[in-house]
Amino acid sequence: MPIKEAVRPGGRSARVQEAVHQAVCELQAVTPRDELTVPRIAERAGVTPSTIYRRWGNLSELVADVSLERMRPDDDPLDTGTLAGDLQAWGEQYLEEMTSVPGQRALNDVMASADGGRRERCYRYGESLMGTLRERALVRGEGAPSVARLIDGIIAPMTYRLLYDPEAATTGNLQRWIAGTLTNEE
After folding, report:
1. CB proximity list for 74: less than 8 A, separation 6 or greater
2. ∠ Cα 80 174 176 (to 5°)
3. What is the largest CA-CA distance in the chain?
């Protein structure tokens, strides 16, 4: 079943999404994952199960949508005064979040989603973040690689390691990926 996006940013659709997302987060905090159900979420959110099925299709897609929101940054990354420092500060925070059990679940939920648009939105978050850090560096007069290079050199290996080898998703490797990207090493 196709996933419908909100037609407008506010109104009933936004209120329903917020209530359902909040219900999922609250239930995930107190309920084992295999006991999470659409009827329980619907009851907690004050909507009917059919509302959830119409909008998200199934429980997996709903959980993936909530997980994607968890991965989206709330604020601009810390400004440390250098691009390398900004990348390190952001990367350390991201690794800490994504190596946790909830972070690993969130990443896996988004990657397992049948809705490729969620992976696209995840990519766009990373692209926007790297764009922010790059522009900040350029304003300071620093040289900065392209956004694509930052993604390929830092986010791509970090994501790969988080998905397939979480023990290798370390701050030491992060430093190496940043240094290699900033010095144009391949």
Report:
1. none
2. 105
3. 55
> 177-183 — which CB contacts under 8 Å span 24+ positions?
177/91, 177/153, 178/84, 178/87, 178/88, 178/91, 178/153, 178/154, 179/84, 180/153, 181/145, 181/149, 181/150, 181/152, 181/153, 181/154, 182/83, 182/84, 182/87, 182/145
Q: The domain spanning residue 125 has which CATH number?
A: 1.10.357.10
Cα(121)–Cα(38) distance, integer angstroms: 24
Residue 64 covered by a domain: no
Show the domain range for 31: 11-57
CA 147 to chain centre: 18
Give a yes or no: residue 81 inside a domain: yes
**What's the total number of domains in the chain?**
2
SS3 114: coil
Q: For 41-78, how does the pLDDT look when each residue is reduced to its tens digit (9 = 90+)?
A: 899 989 988 888 888 888 888 887 887 777 666 677 88
Return the number of other C-beta atoms located less than 10 Å from residue 69's C-beta.
14
CA dihedral 17, 22, 27, 28 (to 10 degrees): 90
Q: Are 138 and 144 in contact (CB under 8 A)?
A: yes
How much is the CA Rg of the chain, to the nearest whole Å? 18
Could you read off the pLDDT of 115-133 as tens digits, one per residue?
A: 777 788 888 889 999 999 9
